[in-house]
Each structure stands twice: as structure tokens, then as C-alpha cells.
Amino acid sequence: MKKKVLALILSLLLVFTTVVGLAGCKKQYTGGDTLVVGYSYFSQKFSAFFAKTAYDQDVATMTGVALLGNTRGGNMVLTGIDGQKESYNGTEYEYFGPANCVIEIGATNADGKRPTTYTFTLRDDIKFSDGTPMTIDDVIFSMYVICDPTYTGSSTLYSQPIMGMTEYRTGVNSTIATKYNALADQIWAAGMDNTDFSNWTQAQQESYFGECMDIAGISFTQEIIDYVNSEYTSYIEGRMGDYTEADVAGSDGLKVVFGMRMWGFGSVEGTTFTDATDNVYELGDGQFPTVEDYWNCIVECYGGDYAAFADYESAGTSLYDYVKPVFVRIEGPKDPASGGEIKNISGIVKTGDYSMVITTTDFDATTIYSLGVTICPLHYYGDVDQYNYENNQFGFPKGDLSLVAAKTTQPMGAGPYKFIRFEEGIVYYEANEFYYKGAPKITYLRFKETSDALKVSGVVGGDTDITDPSISNTTVGQIKDANSNGELTGDVIATSLVDNLGYGYIGINSVNVNVGGQQGSEASKNYRKGLATMLAVYRDVVINSYYGDRAVVIQYPISNTSWAAPSPSDTGYEIAFSKDIDGNQIYNTSMTAEQKYAAAKEAAIGYLVAAGFTYDEATGKFTAAPEGATLSLTMDIPADGIGDHPAFAIFTYFESAMEEMGFDITIIDYAQSSAFWDKLEANNMQIWAAAWGASLDPDMYQVYHSSNGLGLGGTESNHYNINDAQLDAKIMDARASADNTYRKAVYKQCLDILLDWAVEIPTYQRKNCIIFSEERVNMATMTPDVTTFWPWYGDIETLEMNEISE
Predict the structure, then answer these.
(1) CB 527 within 8 A of CB 625
(2) pTM to 2 decimals?
(3) Residue 518 contacts residue 612 (beta carbons within 8 Å)
(4) What is the pLDDT of residues 333-352, one digit of tens each?
(5) Which of 325, 411, 442, 649 meets the CB 3.0–4.6 Å disulfide criterion with 60?
(6) Which of 292, 226, 211 minimizes the C-alpha distance to 263?
(7) Which residues pair with 387 in a beta bridge?
(8) With the C-alpha atoms ordered 297, 301, 303, 307, is the resulting torsion angle positive or negative?
């Protein structure tokens, strides 16, 4: 593959189920009824279905309501109609939502699975912002959109073990799916010039390289466009003619152009774009290439040789992997043994106008988070004439979401605000008079595009009322300078710092850093523990220097925001990599920083000697490495080429200390992060620094299960290539339990195994920053106890402006 996106993203729950969107803002213009949000640039995919950036997701979320919400502590609200009480920080809060959900886990069946039902009851008094009543049909419609086989948005509801899901998406039963998957493999291997039709028909081959390939090609091409517009925006200047980053962000046509330009399929001069096949588009006249044009350009450039570019031009998913399911979906139902196309998801059953039951083939603790979809109005995004539940019609033609996608730039729902328009970088809203929690007290809301450099000055100068600047030292200085008391909260600006949903770490690839090729051996673990001990000792001084009180050092590879994170008061809690080879504590509370460095060095030597390294006590240097190991290590870090990264100084301290001990350390600092991610995804790193995004549920399957190891045949995010049967079993055990107390105990065991493998050094938990205008925002009406999971806009309908005399 040419490029691939690292999936460090926010949880899909936050994308699709947060009650209200991220970052709202208010400004007093006329009598305190207008709130203005300073916001980062939009991509105008203002849809709960198709939004890709957090900024666009927030625009849509302001207009939407989720089937299930969450509490300040990150727990799901399962009794939203009746109210769900939960204490946080000594105060009891009650949470309401659109629905109740009853979960019933069945007994273990002969297959070792526990079929589970989720019974939903919807409130019968909710209306969308145009006054149309909400019913369970709107929920079913929304679910079918994100479970459609051609869906390309961010929700992964379709990956849950819902009964009949796979059959619906493939259109056939498992037997036929297996048959046609194998047939697709054979046709691809034979190639489009094949003339031997003994195992398949000519018509099937023509379908594969014709209709199926073109359908798959659009998804393949769109992935390139999305990747480029996510990762390469810093390259726009000088490569997009007269167009700026803001221009590209606000135009789907320019996004296609940029995707072609950065993938080598065209060039821009002024406002004219010429693609690689010499087609000319006058962008200034509104002539833009489409995704289909881009796909056709790629095919023509390769002379129709799909195999030649299937992987090379990929932005993450091979063309082959796109065309295979399309072939099964189109050709499978034609098989006489198929019984025809499967037209519904058997596990999604309507039981009344305001009720439904979802059945899964097995219990999975992560399922409930995916079920809390945004409830989108069928009558707006779909076609009521194409909805007939009894006849397996769900508001749009299966396999064709064009009707839904047509409303992407103009969201509508049952949320606190209704979208009016997007104009000159500003999203305009008005209060939704039908909002089920009560119409917001602030009548008008605006999301205003604002560069990060101008966010603080925008609040000080009155252009915006609330915004979310990056909490750098410069930002802190600006805020303190604005307040007469010189603090982060004062007479001009109030600051809210909340733990980020994620954490920073230093990773070690066990496939590339081991002894004798045995990544899980004690020698290999000791090798990595020696390195990890030297990296961990510098965390305190470096993180404090970079962030100050805006971040804390963490001891386990899990975000402090998670309910599963160990706390210092828990039994068995330890400082990461603070014991020597014999299990003795390295540090004590009276040690100075220099004494700690010396103690860590002594412990590291002990680990490395135990791993088989040869140490010369006379010189204080290692002189030889055991078979399969090395004294030369490369460390990769995306620090903008100038060392601007929280962990950069940890690397330089480590480099100095290890070279004193005879190691040769090379630090590669990437000016453009895309090259960093490419190398990481290619499984070519030894030691690196990055950060993980987290989710409400601490499920560890994607990141730590051996089936997802990039060097173990997997395709997911186990970049450490940890391969531990005990860890795998515990991850699956925790997934299968509905008891969070039990799950937390199991996850603590998982975390201990991870630290024993020494493949991840937990580094820091940073904070996010929201600033408010003390002059214009009535802070007394702000929702109390803001948390990572309960933002300041959690009760936006009660928020008020201060009255300011003109």
C-alpha cells in the first residue's frame, strides 16, 4: 500500500452517540441571545452518518439526539426515560434521554455463545426540529443506513454480532458467501484476460471486472481523498495554486483535486487543474473532477491493469479487498441455491411504534456503545414512500445511499439547535423550540471558523465567546496576560482543563527488539525492560517541563479517564518500570533526580546483562549484544522536525545515557507526520513516541490482541506485536462480561502483562482546554462538574448569557 491512516481516533460512540456536539460558544450581540463558538476549519460533511472530522461531527451533533447517552463518569444511560441517578465528585446527578434499554444475556448455548437481547423503548413525545414526531421507524432507518453494505461513514455498528448482520450485508447466507468469496479469489488471480470458464462463467468474470470493480473503485478512491485531506493539509500551500487550506476544507470539489494532486494524478496552476490524463478543469468556473473522474484517471493511467495499482495506490485498503464483498453481494444472490437476496437484518425487530428488540449471537461488552446511534429523521434523510418495515423496505434502496448523502451539508434532527446555513466560514443555528429537554435559553448559536493562533484573542476581543485553543505555553501566557489576576481564570477569561480522552506513550516493537527472534522470551523481555527503565526515569522532568500542570505522568498504558484505570489507592498499584531484575524497588522518596537517573542506569544494566548483553565494568560500556539483538537502535518521533513533542526530551536524555553505556542511538524527527505513520504501519520501527485516542469502553482487543499484530499477520493496531496467549484470553474474558468491577480487575491483569512485556511505556495524560468569556457567558448557568465524558455543553439548553449594556 502507498499510504495508510493510523486509526488513532475518537471512539465511535462519541462520533454517533454524544448528546450534544463538541465546542459551542456564545457572544452577546443583541440582548444576550447569540452564542459564538471559535472553531477549527470545517469540511462541510455536517452529517451524523458521514462526518469524518471532529469539527463536522460537532456541527451535526448540535442538531441531533442519540438513542443512548452517557454520564459524567462515562457510563451509559440505560434508563433515559425514567431518569438514571449516579454520583460524581460527591454530588448525585440525574440523567435523562430518549430511551430505556433492557439488556438480557442468555445462557451459553452449544456453540459456547450467549445470545443477548437489547430491548429499547423510545419516548413517545419527542419531535424533530420541524415538528415531525419521532418514532422507532426513525431509529430503524438510521441503523439500516449505517449497516448498508455501501456505507462509508465512521460508525461500526455493522461489525457487532447482530443476528443476520453479515447475511444482510453480503445479501446471502454464509454458505453462499463462502462460495463466492472463494470464487472472487480465483477470478482475481486469473485476471481479466482469462478465457478458461470451467469454474465460473464469462458473465461472472465480466461482472467482477466491470460493475463490481467500478463500485469498489469509488470506495478505493474516496479513501485516498479522505486520507490526503486528513493527513496532508500542511502541504496545501504552494501545491494548490491560488487555493488556501480554508478553501480546500470548504469545498468537496477541491478535496478531490487535492487528493489527486498529492497522489500524483494532476497539478494545479492558479485556478486550473490538469489531471494525469490531460483533462483540464477550470476550478474558478466551478469545474471540478468527481470521485468517479479520479477513479477513471487512475484506471487509465495504469492501462486498466487493476492488479498493478491495487496495493500500490492504496490509502489503507487494497482494491482487491473492496471488490471482493461487492462481487459476493451482486453475484451471490443470483446463485440458484441462495434462495434470493437477504433483505433484512433478522436481529433488528420492530415491536411497536416506540419499541424494538436487537438480538446478538453472543454477548460483547462493546455492543451497547455502538447501539447508541444518532436518531436521524426518516422523512428528511430518507423517503417515507420507500419505507415499509413489513416488506423489508427501510427508506432508501439497499446499496444506494445517494438520497441520504444528498443532505450531508444540511443536518436536521431533534437536538437543541436547528441548522440554518453555512456561510463564509460560519455555521448558523437557531434554538429548537421542540427540543425534548426544553428550548435553549440562548436563541442563536454560531460556529465560527477560527485559526488556533487567534482563538484566545478572539475571546478577549469579543469575536467569540467560547473556544478550544491548544493548551501550549503560548496559550497559557496569553490567557494569564488577559486576566488582571494573572491566572488562567480571572475577570476576562475562565479556563476549563479536562483530561483528554487518550494518552501519550512510547512504544517498542517486540518483533524488532528481541533476543534470538523470540519476542516473548525472558531474555527479550529483559532487553526491553532495560530500555524501558531508562526511558521511564526521564518522564517526570520532561513532561513537567513541556506541559507544567497541564499533564500528569501515568503509570499504566490506559487513559486516566477510564473507569478501568488503576488508581494509586488500588492494591498492586506500582510506578511503571521501577523495579530491578530481582524485583527490588529502584527508587525511594528521598532521591534527587540525579540519584534516580543513576539508580535507573544500574537497574537497566542488570536487565541487559540478564538478557545476554556483554558488559565491561572497567569501561562502563556494553561491548556485544546477544544473537538477534543489537547495540544500535533507532527512535522515531513526529516532532515537526524541530523537537516539538512531549516525549522528545525523553528521547534525547535516553540517547545520551545509552551512548555512555556503549549503545548507538539514532533519533529520527519527522517534519511531516505522514511519513512517521507510514513507517509505523509498515512495521519498521523499533522505538517510537505517539499517542492513543481512547473510548468510553476500555476494550483492548484492537490494540493488544495477537490477532491484530502487524508483524503477526494482522492488519490492525497492535504495533507492539505482543503475542501472549494469556493476555489474549483475558482480553476476551473481559469482553464477555457485563460486570465492570470484574472487568476492571481483569484489565489490571492485562496491564500488568503488557508492562511485563515492556512494549509500551505509559508517558502522559494531557488536558484539553476550553476558555469562556467571563464578561459575556453567565458562568453560574454552566453545567457543573465538567468531565471528559460530560462536556460544558452537556446542559446547553440551560446556558445563559450575561446582560451587557451597550
Answers:
(1) no
(2) 0.78
(3) no
(4) 999 888 888 999 999 999 99
(5) 411
(6) 226
(7) 394
(8) negative
